[in-house]
C-alpha cells in the first residue's frame, strides 16, 4: 500500500515538472510575429508581394495599406440654404430622437451639415443637449416655448374642454384625453415657425422621435424646394380620424368666406374634397415629416387661417391635429405645383412606411426598406389622389404594390 502511494506521488510530481517545463520553454520562444499596432520597427512585410512594402517600412501604422481608389468627397461642396431641422421634444424623448438624428445624419445631413433647432415647453436638460449636440453635424440650438404658446387661450371654456376629454377617453380616441397633446398640435399648427430661434431661417425639415430614413439622399432637398418654387412637401398621406375633427371643415369654410383673397387660384381642393368643397374627405399630408417654407407659414394668409381656427376652439373642444391643419392650408392657399411629393425620401413613422416605388432607384440609393411595406398605393393612402389631381404618371411598378 505504502509502496503504491509513493509510486503515485512520483507520477504526480513528474507530471507537474513536465507542465512547468512546457510553460517555461514556450514563453521563451521569441514573439516577433506579434508586432504591436503602430510599432513600425518590428514589422516585416508578411508576404513578398505586398504592394507598398517599401512605404510600409517607414510610415507609422504601416500594418495597413492605403486605399488607392478615389473615394467620393466626405461632404458635398457648395453653398447652403438658409435652412434648419426642427424637432419638438421632451427631455424624456432623448433616446428616441437620438435614433432619428442618426438616420437623418447618415442618409443626408452628414453631407450638408445643416443646423438643428430643438423646441420644448420645458427647459432642455444637459443630458438632452449633450447627446443631441454630439449627433448633429451642424449647429444645435435649444429653445423654450413661451408659456402663452403652450396654454389655453382665454376664450376657451375649460369645463367644456374637460368634458370633451372625458367623452373622448370613453370612446378610446387616441390622445383623446390628453391636454399636452392638444397643446402640441396647436403649437405645431400655429407657433413653431414664430419661435425666435426659427426666425433666422427660411426653410425647415421637421423630424420627430423614432423616425427612420431608408435611402441615401445625395442632393440638397432645401435647394430643390427653392429652385422648384415648392413651399410644402410630404412623403405619406392618409385619411384623418374623423372623430378628432368633426367641425374642422366648417371652420375652414368660415375662413374662406371671410378671406377669399387668401385662396390660391390653382389650389388642391380636389385633393381635400370630393364635392367641390362642400365636405372634407379627410385626406391630409402626414406632418411628422415636412420640408417647407417658413415664410409661407409666417405669411398673412397662413396666420389668418390659424388665428380663425384657433378662435373656433377646435384644438381643445375637439382634437384637431396639426397635420390636417397644415394640409388644408397648403391645399387651399398654395398653388398645386407648390406642393411636392418626395417619392425619393424613404421614410418611416410608426405605423406607416413610404418606400420609393421603382427598384432601380432603391438599388442606386442603397435603400433598406421592403417595397412590400410601401403605404402609397394602399386604399387608406391619399397619394393616388395627389397623382391624379396633378395629372402625374404614377411610378412604374406601382400596380404591383397595390
Ligand atoms: N416638448 C414637448 N413635446 C411634445 C409633447 N408631446 C408631444 N411632443 C412632441 O411632439 C411631436 C409629436 O408627438 P408624438 O408623441 O410623436 O405624437 P404622434 O406622432 O402623433 O403619435 C414629437 O416630436 C414629440 O416629441 C409635450 O408634451 N412636450
Ligand atoms: Mg410621432
Automatic annotation (TrEMBL):
Region (Disordered): 39-76
Record carries keyword Transferase: yes
Any one of the GO BP annotations: protein N-linked glycosylation
Active site: 290 (nucleophile)
UniProt-recorded Gene Ontology molecular function terms: alpha-1,2-mannosyltransferase activity
Family annotation (Pfam families): Glyco_transf_15 (PF01793)
InterPro entries in alphabetical order: Glyco_trans_15, Nucleotide-diphossugar_trans
Residue ranges, compositional bias (Low complexity): 39-51
Keyword Membrane (UniProt): no
Family annotation (SUPFAM superfamilies): Nucleotide-diphospho-sugar transferases (SSF53448)
This protein's UniProt keywords: Glycosyltransferase, Transferase
Family under the similarity heading: Belongs to the glycosyltransferase 15 family.
Name assigned to this protein: Nucleotide-diphospho-sugar transferase
Organism: Paraphoma chrysanthemicola
Lineage: Eukaryota, Fungi, Dikarya, Ascomycota, Pezizomycotina
